[in-house]
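Slides due. Your pick:
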Amino acid sequence: MSSPLSESVEFRVTELCAAIANDPAIRTARDQAEAFLADEDAVGLYREMMTLGNQLQQLHRAGEQLDETEVDRFEDLRTRGGSHPAIQAFHSAQDTLQGVATAINTFITKTLEKGQVPSPDEVYKSGSCGEGCGCH
């Protein structure tokens, strides 16, 4: 399958990816995420918390009565997870990486919509839907 990108655009995208991969903040975030994944205790706690949270959420959506013991267990897991340094670092890393991905996607989306490079103000504008969200 051939690329839908011209050589010029593909070259610039490759340059952008290299800049992203070499950015110190992004490297730190990736290192934090990888450190979390290497910490079996942190991953186990996080997985248990997420699994139980999802189960409780499904029961709630189905209108089922939640078992208070399970709710208390989830709250304990959430408290332990929220204070675990590796999990905190993982959440910070996720926020950083997702923020970069969102900003880049918004720049590209606005460029495709407008046919010109958007200003940072157009991309980072705060407000309700339509004010920097990329849907208009």
The CA atoms of residues 75 and 133 lie 33 Å apart. The mean pLDDT is 91.
